[in-house]
Amino acid sequence: MKRAMVMTIGAVLAGLVLSAPVLAGSITQLTNNEMDDCAPKVSGGNVAWYGYEAAEDAEIYFYNGSTVEQVTDDAKLNRYPEISGGNLAWVRSGGGDEIFFWDGAAVTRVTTNGYHDRQAQVSGSKVVWTGLTPAGYEIFLWDGASTQQLTSSATADLFPVISGDNVAWQGYDGSDWEIYVYDGVTTQQVTSDAKENRYPEISGDNLAWVRTGGGDEIFFSDGVTVTRVTTNGVHDRQAQVSGSNVVWTGIVSPTNYEVFLWDGVTTTQLSTNASFDLNPRVSADYVVWQGYDGADYEIYMYDGATVTQLTDNEYDDLYPEIDGLNIVWQGYDGNDFEVFLYSDDGGGVETRVVPAIPEPSGLALLLVGLGAGIVRRRRA
User: Fold this and answer.
1) Residue 344 half-sphere exposure, CB side, CA atoms within 13 Å?
2) If we measure between CA atoms, which residue out of 229, 327, 339 comes closest to residue 281?
3) CB 247 within 8 A of CB 208
4) How high is the mean pLDDT of the chain?
5) 52 phi and psi, to 5 degrees?
6) What DSSP state is assigned to residue 364?
7) How far is residue 150's CA from residue 140's CA, in Å, rounded to a whole number?
8) What is the average per-residue pLDDT within 171-200?
9) What mean pLDDT comes out for the span 63-71?
């Protein structure tokens, strides 16, 4: 399997003088098998992902900090897990798309209907998703006991996200896409313009999204005021938010994608390498992304002062996710994709975890291209 190490980038990034790394963590390989393990998500020390056992059979796996548990085993396509603490939500396909929830002990089937339910998101014991009803795409919320339909329109509502009691999504008003938020009691329309406001992300009362039309720009709302974060001549996409911090990818040129951070006041360019830096994620002051080093994609992290390269190998490391100083991604080992976890535990060496559940070989996952990845990882 591949080698993983922590190293420092010796460069100056847009005013960031990079010094010796303050990180002292270790990389743990959570899977080691002959099947593709994909789309890992992290919450604290817990990690969830799905693994292909066959072309039409994907199962959900969960790592609790010490052991791996197989959550599903039903010969269906269980994919796209989301995680909040020890709770999971995912979509199961095969005879219709349905939403499932796991609280660490029992699996609950959340939806049982005749239409497709997709784009599941979880916060605590609450789950939101998009349902393709006979009337169109609508947003639903399950609170652990009952389901509430949050939208009822003749158009489409997509890409729901949830943080505590707050749910946000994009809705088509008949002319363009606008951002809406439900606070547990009422629904408010956050944007109202002749532009396309899409792909909301949420952190508490704070929202970030992309507005297209005359260029792609990033916007932020603290629940009271909407702030335009970017005003430039490049396309800004893949917005993510944590507290008042917002990160995104700016397309400086067709072959140069860079990562930017806005802290509520100023914008900092975290990468400058005339190549592709994609899929940024933010957690408090920490930012992670994948960057092309001229041969393949590696994982990079910014800790508020220093950029550190977490991986250095000859294979692609993709789709990082972060929660505090816990970072996960899927990395190609030369045969298939495996799941890796970086934790700031003072280690500094790679360790291995032998899965508690044997994972049989399966067919390779057909990866979504970078063109789709630059838009968003969630799909209707």
Assistant:
1) 15
2) 327
3) no
4) 87
5) -85, 120
6) P
7) 6
8) 97
9) 97
